[in-house]
Design a protein that fits this description.
single chain; 257 residues; mainly beta; 4-stranded antiparallel β-sheet; 3 helices
Length: 257
């Protein structure tokens, strides 16, 4: 009988430790803490030092084998991938997600958004605080195509009145009303281009805009249905004004899954 069991069987039993508790030490051959510490570093145990950053997770690399998977980038999601060591990876959302591809300042006579990735379903452009050096409206071209392959249908509100117009041109007018250079104005455009990578049909899109006049009271709110009558995949977008340079503005280009 071991010493632990001898003590547990003593009469009377120790007052601070019950006989049952002492019985748990039956078969101990060395210091209990030493044995616990030795187990932490074994391959069969999950050592807390396996992770070293906020957001790290533990994943299996094989049966009874674990490893650290480092935290992914902001806004990525955990995705199964059998080609990786852990069978997992951090990736952009496979559907419904938006990825910021570029941020561009409007300046000079034109700005080109080039080398647009062809790995998304749709594109979205947000143009903030567009202002020209003199009265002008902003326009767009795709792939530097200058033929009359651009069509649009506008729906616009002028205070209490409305206007509907359609036209074709060698460019797309994103707002058919002039914008003036006024630092107090907040002219905004949100443009969606759908199925922009396809090479078998025309491209459709839409634009919603808010535009203020020179006095800050001439408010126009509207939307435009856009069509690029060309089978080319859209790989670049050129933005310019109808008659003048850009004074200010920022373009955010997003890829949409």
């Amino acid at each position: 009988m071991t010493k632990a069991r001898d003590i547990a069987s003593a009469t009377p039993a120790p007052s601070t430790v019950s006989a049952t508790e002492l019985g748990y030490l039956d078969g101990v051959t060395s210091a209990v803490q030493t044995q616990i510490d030795s187990k932490i570093g074994q391959s069969t145990a999950i050592n807390p030092t396996i992770v070293d950053a906020k957001g790290d997770i533990i994943a299996a690399t094989a049966a009874d084998t674990v490893a650290r998977l480092a935290v992914g980038a902001n806004d990525t999601v955990l995705t199964a991938d059998s080609s990786t060591a852990t069978g997992l990876k951090w990736a952009a959302p496979s559907s419904g997600g938006m990825t910021l591809l570029s941020t561009t300042t409007l300046s000079g006579s034109s700005v080109t958004l080039s080398s647009i990735p062809q790995t998304y379903n749709n594109l979205q452009l947000i143009i903030r605080n567009h202002r020209p050096t003199s009265d002008a409206y902003i326009r767009a071209r795709f792939n530097s195509v200058t033929t009359s392959t651009y069509y649009s249908l506008d729906f616009m509100s002028y205070g209490i009145s409305t206007d509907i117009s359609s036209y074709s041109s060698t460019y797309l007018d994103l707002c058919t009303q002039y914008v003036t250079d006024n630092s107090a104005n907040s002219n905004i455009y949100v443009i969606n281009l759908y199925d922009y990578t396809n090479t078998v049909s025309y491209k459709m899109g839409d634009n919603r805009f808010f535009k203020e006049g020179s006095n800050g009271t001439d408010i126009n709110i509207g939307s435009t249905i856009l069509m690029f009558a060309n089978n080319e995949a859209i790989s670049s977008i050129v933005l310019s004004n109808s008659t003048s340079d850009f004074t200010s503005g920022t373009v955010l280009l997003y890829g949409v899954k």
